[in-house]
Write a structure and sequence with these properties.
This protein is mainly α. It is 83% helix and 0% strand. Helix 2 packs antiparallel against helix 3 and helix 7 runs antiparallel to helix 8. The longest helix has 51 residues.
Length: 217
């Protein structure tokens, strides 16, 4: 099955599976760092409103760079073209199910494996569901679960030349939606974390400090 997948990937992207896997892995690492620790740091340091502006500009620069590389090389590094039709999405769905259904002889390994792949599989299924629902749903879901680069590249349908006006509209709209989502998400989580710390963490820390001082010789 892996050979068939590799042939399909190379046919639709122009690059072998191993190279796309490496590039996709690096992209995912950068994407995770940007969307999580960096975004949290920005929310804490700047506050939600300023963080939204700062991170929107930062993501615009980052995703513009991705688009430039995509245009210059002409290679679909992230395999975006492989999900641009419902037929391919259905085929991709079977591949996702294949990875989810993998079992090991030692049952605990199967459980650990499924915990690790659960979130990526869930996100992939949501994206494929959105693609099959239509352009509007796909646009919103790709903007939230991916980024403005992936969203724009998807709606360009394989084009690698300069962006036209409609491409820029998609890019900017996706950029705003994506950063609104991450700002609201992390803004709420940070506020809840601060409130919980003030309510429970700080008193416990103060009590522990007093106890240590009391027990100290």
């Amino acid at each position: 099955m892996l050979k068939r997948i590799n042939e399909k990937v190379k046919e639709h992207t122009g690059a072998p599976l191993w190279l796309l896997t490496v590039v996709r892995g690096l992209y995912q690492v950068v994407d995770w760092l940007f969307d999580n620790p960096l975004y949290v740091a920005a929310i804490v340091y700047f506050g939600p409103v300023k963080a939204f502006a700062v991170m929107t500009l930062a993501s615009a620069a980052l995703n513009s760079t991705y688009l430039l590389i995509h245009q210059k090389t002409g290679i679909d590094w992230l395999g975006i073209s492989a999900i641009k039709t419902a037929a391919l999405a259905t085929e991709e769905h079977s591949i996702i199910d294949h990875f989810w259904g993998k079992r090991f002889r030692f049952p605990p390994l199967t459980w650990i494996y499924r915990v690790i792949v659960a979130l990526p599989v869930a996100v992939a299924k949501i994206i494929l569901w959105a693609i099959n629902r239509g352009h509007g749903t796909a646009f919103v879901v790709l903007s939230i679960f991916q980024d403005s680069f992936v969203t724009t590249a998807y709606f360009r349908h394989g084009k690698t030349g300069p962006l036209d006006r409609s491409d820029w509209k998609i890019f900017l709209a996706s950029l705003v939606i994506s950063n609104i989502y991450w700002t609201v998400r992390w803004g709420v989580i940070v506020e809840i974390a601060i409130a919980l710390w003030k309510r429970f963490g700080a008193p416990l820390a103060e009590a522990a400090s007093s106890l240590f001082q009391y027990l100290a010789p």
